[in-house]
Amino acid sequence: MSQAETENPYLTDELLIVRNSGEIPEVALHGSLYYLTQDPEGPGLELDHLEVRMLKNMVVERYREIIHRDLEPGNRELSIYRGVARALVNWRRLAGFCRKEGRPKEAYRLEVARALVTFLRNEVAEVSSRARISAINCDCDGLRTFARELGLGPEELPEGWIGLCPGLRR
Question: What angle do CA 77, 78, 82 make, to 5 degrees?
């Protein structure tokens, strides 16, 4: 059952709320579950497994969206951009959510790893050509840790990445 297939307008609204929530979609999930099932002013629904799963899927989608937002080079000048440091925080939240929910995170790990490498390649190229200054907002240890958590070894990171880190920029 997809979001479009649900006939319950309350659930449809809450799916949208969780999907478009802020930085911590798990908070929105718990608010939605409470509203739908327990809130005296809510509809008092009894959600089945598939409906709860749909809401939890929106948490994953929101985490993916905000991680990619912060690993998208085109967003660096926008007010929505939070940087690589924030992408790491949200990766950890997504991984923790998957672990807690018994969901495999491997596909997401690979997706985020590719996005990080692409971001770093672009960043190295633009900084090397003096087209811009580095937007990396975490230290080298933080960036190295992020890469390691994504299963990336040093050989998979673009040459020159270390020079993007604050304090090591030329």
Answer: 95
Q: Do 167 and 114 lie in a common domain?
A: yes
Position with higher pLDDT, 118 vs 1: 118
| 152 torsion bin: left (phi>0), alpha (psi -120 to 50), beta (else) | beta
What's the mean pLDDT in 127-153? 95
Residue identified by tokens 């299963």 is 151
Q: Same domain for 59 and 88?
A: no
**C-alpha to C-alpha distance for 142 and 156, rounded to whole angstroms:** 16
Count of domains observed in the chain: 2
Supply the range of the domain harboring residue 131: 79-170
Phi then psi for 93, rounded to 5 degrees?
-65, -45
pLDDT at 5 over 70: no
